[in-house]
Structure formats: structure tokens, C-alpha cells
Design a protein that fits this description.
There is one protein chain. It is built from four helices and no strands. 75% of the residues lie in helices and 0% in strands.
């Protein structure tokens, strides 16, 4: 497996680990028979964790498709790997800014992550201009 493919797995783990600790640490208040109970997410930190979790689910498909497309179309693997690692770092920072209630920085990081995805996605189209 390539580093970029491990980053795809890392992106899945990140969005799962964004919400799991809040459910585990509050297991007495969390009712697994009603996992989407709005009452559990009334706490502001838990609400932000849920928002970061949902956003991770929303961003994952494009990231996974971009990585796989770039690899299948023989874009430079080292560049795919570097951008995938950078995306994962940006997403980790995004989660922390979401949890820390820093909306402006969070939006900047989201846009950086989206730009990285665009770069990975269009890498096959631009591969003749990229270093090998």
C-alpha cells in the first residue's frame, strides 16, 4: 500500500476518533439505542465534535476518489503521497480548531484541505507538467 492509501485509511480513522471519545467518556449519558439523540449533543463541546465528525464524513469521499484516481492515472506517486499527508495534517488541525471553537481558522483550514483535494484530483491531467 502507498502512503496516500494509508492516508485514506487515516482519514476514516480521524472522523471516527473525532466523536468516539466523547461517546465513551460520557457513556452514562450516551444512549446507544438513540445514537443521534439531540439531547446528548446539547453540550457545546460535544456538538462541535459531532460537527467535525459529520464534516469528516462529508469530505472523505472526494479525498478517497482523488487519491485513487491520481494513482490509477499514474500521476507522480511521491507527489500524491505528499499531498495526501498534507491533507491529513490539515484535517487534524481542522478538527482541533472545530473543537476549540475557532470558526475563522477552521474555515481557512477547510479551504486549504479542499484545495489539496483539487490538486490531487487534477494531478493526472497536469502530470506532463509535474516533476517525475
Amino acid at each position: 500500500m502507498t502512503i496516500a492509501e494509508w492516508c485514506v485509511f487515516g482519514a476514516v480513522m480521524l472522523y471516527l476518533l473525532t466523536i468516539a471519545p466523547f461517546k465513551a467518556l460520557n457513556f452514562r449519558r450516551f444512549d446507544n439505542s438513540k445514537p443521534r439523540d439531540p439531547a446528548f449533543f446539547e453540550d457545546p463541546l460535544r456538538a462541535r465534535a459531532l460537527g467535525a465528525h459529520i464534516n469528516g464524513i462529508e469530505t472523505f469521499p472526494f479525498f478517497a476518489v482523488a487519491v485513487l484516481l491520481a494513482e490509477f492515472r499514474a500521476a507522480p506517486q511521491n507527489l500524491i503521497n505528499e499531498l495526501a499527508v498534507l491533507f491529513l495534517i490539515v484535517r487534524i488541525a481542522y478538527v482541533f480548531t472545530y473543537l476549540g471553537n475557532r470558526p475563522t481558522l477552521r474555515s481557512i483550514l477547510w479551504n486549504i484541505g479542499f484545495a489539496i483535494n483539487i490538486a490531487i484530483f487534477f494531478m493526472p491531467l497536469l502530470r506532463r507538467f509535474l516533476p517525475i
